[in-house]
Specification:
- The protein is an alpha/beta fold.
- It is 41% helix and 10% strand.
- The protein has a five-stranded mixed β-sheet with strand order 3-2-1-4-5, sandwiched between helices.
- Helix 9 links the parallel strand 4 and strand 5.
Length: 298
């Protein structure tokens, strides 16, 4: 990752802070940045890595968005500020000499970006007031940094955000050889997620993510579920047809009623007419009964 891209990553943290680096937090920042590994050859090193990184972070918090802007801010910073940031002090003149643009560009391009981002995220989180009520809720989401490169080569990050304070707790780079799914656990692995509710979009609605959060990190989760994820509520895949899992015997067919039309009505009445005419020669009582039935039916 280049120096400009790393500054863009640091700028994400700066966007969630209400003020620039206060006096009481400068020393704690330098101490925290001591955990970032120094990959340089120790021979000939003039500027300590924590001091260079702390100066870059302080410049980014004030609005610097390039290595040139960081170097310009450092050149104009008062001696007291440079001293609190741990900038190199000339043993002969006693003057704190800030790194120049080439030094910032070279160091930021070679530093471990994930370690720096994780350290700054932890420091920012420690500077925020703790939530007094309710459960902590962390949101995981991906974003592409505009202006970080040409189309198709821009830096894409997966970040976790504290919804209570608005603080970015960590970010990982999602390069072209991987995707957000494989970077989910590395992003949250270093965070204490005990009793934390983790939210994510539908892309991260995966069994592996849910089991890892509950079993390993002792956290809860709220994932977006779409129709294609309906099978994830059970261990077996959903049937291709939603009616296949209901194996019921077919219902016996009932005879369809004959509609009442003039033709069928005439056919049904003819036997009764015939019966009345045939039995008309029977005795009076019987003939009276038959005629009555026939009259009723007609």
């Amino acid at each position: 990752m280049g120096s400009t891209s790393l500054i863009d990553v640091l700028a994400v943290h700066a966007d969630h802070l209400d003020e620039s680096l206060p006096v009481q937090r400068r020393s704690s920042l330098v101490t925290a940045l001591a955990a970032v590994p120094d990959r340089r050859d120790p021979r000939g090193v003039v500027h300590a890595l924590p001091a260079v990184l702390a100066t870059a972070v302080a410049a980014v918090l004030t609005g610097a968005r390039s290595a040139a802007a960081v170097a310009e801010w450092a050149a104009d910073a008062p001696q007291q500020v440079l001293a609190e940031l741990g900038v190199f002090r000339d043993p002969f003149t006693g003057v704190h000499r800030a790194p120049d643009e080439s030094t910032f560009r070279r160091i930021l391009a070679g530093v471990d970006a994930d370690a720096l981002d994780d350290t700054v995220g932890r420091w920012v989180l420690a500077c925020q007031p703790a939530a007094t009520t309710g459960r902590r809720v962390y949101s995981v989401d991906g974003k592409t940094l505009r202006g970080s490169g040409p189309a198709g080569e821009q830096v894409h990050l997966l970040a976790v955000l504290d919804q209570h304070t608005g603080t970015v707790l960590g970010q990982v780079d999602v390069d072209g050889k991987t995707n957000e799914l494989t970077r989910f656990q590395p992003l949250l692995g270093s965070l204490d997620l005990t009793a934390v509710v983790v939210t994510a979009d539908a892309l991260h609605t995966q069994r592996e993510h849910a089991r890892w959060l509950v079993d390993t990190k002792k956290a809860a989760y709220v994932f977006t579920v779409k129709k294609k994820h309906s099978a994830q509520h059970g261990d077996q895949p959903a049937p291709a047809n939603r009616h296949h899992h209901h194996r019921c015997s077919p219902t016996p067919q009932q005879p369809k009623p004959i509609p009442a039309t003039p033709t069928t009505r005439t056919r049904l009445k003819r036997p009764y007419r015939h019966l009345a005419g045939t039995l008309a020669r029977q005795p009076t009582g019987a003939r009276h009964f038959v005629k009555t039935r026939a009259n009723v039916q007609i």
